[in-house]
Amino acid sequence: MKFLFVNGPPIIKYGLAAGLAEAGENVAIIEVPGNIEKNPGYFREQVIILRPDFIIVEGTAILKPYQVLFPVLKEFNVPLIFWAIDDPVEFNNFSLHLARRAKYAFTTAVECIRAYKEHGIRARHLQFACLPRFHKKVAPEQDLRHDIVFVGNNYHKYAARTTGLESVLKPLLGSSSIRVYGNQWWVDGKRPFVLDKRHYGGYLPYERLPAAYSSAKIVLGMHSVDTSPSMMSMRTFEALGCGAFHLTQWTPAIENNFSNHRHLVWSKSSGETVELVKYYLGRDHLREKIARAGQQEVYAKHTYLHRARDLLAALQY
Known about the structure:
Blueprint: E1 2-5, H1 10-22, E2 26-29, H2 32-38, H3 42-50, E3 54-58, H4 69-76, E4 80-84, H5 91-99, E5 104-107, H6 112-118, E6 123-125, E7 148-151, H7 159-169, E8 178-181, E9 200-202, H8 209-215, E10 218-221, H9 234-241, E11 246-249, H10 252-257, E12 265-267, H11 270-281, H12 284-301, H13 304-315
Helix pairs in contact: 1-13, 7-11, 9-12
């Protein structure tokens, strides 16, 4: 089968699209959001050229240009697969709208499946994962060597992310060897939280993520959802895949999928975070043992090849 993705962010390029290719499927990625501004007929032209069996859209990838999608899908009778990667927080704002137009809907939040079904939509669970040929341990890089690192943006839209900021990141900002990588939101004075510039490492290209995670002693994790039994940050799987020692904000999803002090370490408060960092920074062998076990766990259960096979199995019904 041939799958056409409408854009290629890392979660697609180094994620689901790569997993489908590893599963032996024919995969193509185009960039609809940028190209239709210059050429309104771009999407239709690409469908004619590529002749896909399925179109896949993730999250809010086509939030602005989605109106160009549906007439073309109808014209060429191509079914839409929607991967709702922003559930449950964007279920009502966006996911439900697009899922109604899709033949197959997948969600990262298992609790949303019932809600989709109540609207007559058949949905299945499709979690984030890692790609072992990309998310792997690599040689450390000198400019990325830090005791503690966090890679992500300074979101304040979601209450859970604010909780994570308070319990996981802020308590450690007294350390001189902590770096935060992300966009300029971290030093934007208009946002509720502004990071001291001495801790800001700038924007990190995604291709350097394995090096950043392989160079730091502790990789922090925060989440935009802290109530879901399944939805968690994609960084969890990526950090573990890279063989990092991962200290993350506790969520039910984290506890449901991993074992504390075995695959990773979770924290429920600022005080606990400080104690965990103090304990593990001085114990290299324990960090390395937990990091190895975490990597083995995600390689065994949570790769994008696993996710691709789940998706393909769902298409058979």
